């Protein structure tokens, strides 16, 4: 069984706003294309590896292929004007005795061995297979701004790559499309046009195609912010942390409810947005804020975030308190802050620590909180 791979890497990256080829943009320190090449290289059943590149990038891609696939001969061939033309050139570069062709988009860097093997197993059974995932959104067919159809969601799958075919079948499909002058956005569609069934194998929601800068993990992050606050512990006050009242014989002193955690969180959020601090926004000389729940202030900060199109990517806070023991309350605090910030609890982390009896915290004179937040662009 001779298995050949074609990695399509000839896109121009216009939607990425990239100067050069988007598959050469760095992702966690490596060019995006390198990830799928390394994955295919690690599969010993793969014999031939062809990368289709833009003419201008041929040398760069050759160097990259050498690095990603040490000891393996990787053919790097120039692509065409359209993806379909590029894949055809890749197919022609494979030896004629190839049994199976795996076609993959270089802009899908999160490929795993498992996905390829799942696809290959299904291809051996059916002859033509695409990795795909069931669509989660309801898909609308729209013409001139008006919905004309809502296809049943249970029948809709989003096609990914790799797509795997018997070599002679995919070559025939491409040749027929060339003769008829038809084009399609993926290779399956050309095989479908031959009247040959194409099966789906379970893809992975993580196997995303990087099309716009927002798709690049980490690049959608807007900003980080840090917050720190301290309040004095006194008798006769409630102890409120993250909007949750904690039973204790003392509470925190302050103009508002003295929720030291929410204050540190707000300062982190404001810091990330470059909006100063809570002292400027809610001065403690203003009688409107006397005894106010800090969650009310937090909702104002959230309003500011929404106006600026920021959402919480994640929030991490550590509460420094010698007493009381806070571990039984951490989950409730986390849930409360998540709901106030309109994000899932998985984005919030709350820690509690003593200071081993040292300093003002250790002497139980006060409670301190440090919070760090990462905001990303997008609605919250
Ligand atoms: Mg404060």
What would the keywords be for this entry?
seven-stranded mixed beta sheet, alpha/beta, Spore Coat Polysaccharide Biosynthesis Protein SpsA, Chain A, 11 helices, 60s Ribosomal Protein L30, Chain: A, binds magnesium ion, elongated
What can you tell me about this protein's structure?
The structure is a single chain. This protein is an alpha/beta fold and 380 residues long. The chain has two domains: 3-215, Spore Coat Polysaccharide Biosynthesis Protein SpsA, Chain A, CATH 3.90.550.10; 221-377, 60s Ribosomal Protein L30, Chain: A (2-Layer Sandwich), CATH 3.30.1330.50. It is built from eleven helices and 18 strands. The strands form five sheets. Strands 5-4-1-6-10-7-11 form a seven-stranded mixed beta sheet, sandwiched between helices. A five-stranded mixed beta sheet has the order 15-12-18-16-17. Strands 2-3 form a two-stranded antiparallel sheet. β8 (141-143) and β9 form a beta hairpin. The longest helix has 14 residues, at 113-126. The two termini are 51 Å apart. The model has no long low-confidence stretch (mean pLDDT 92). The structure holds magnesium ion (MG). Magnesium ion is lined by residues 229, 231, 254, 260, 263.
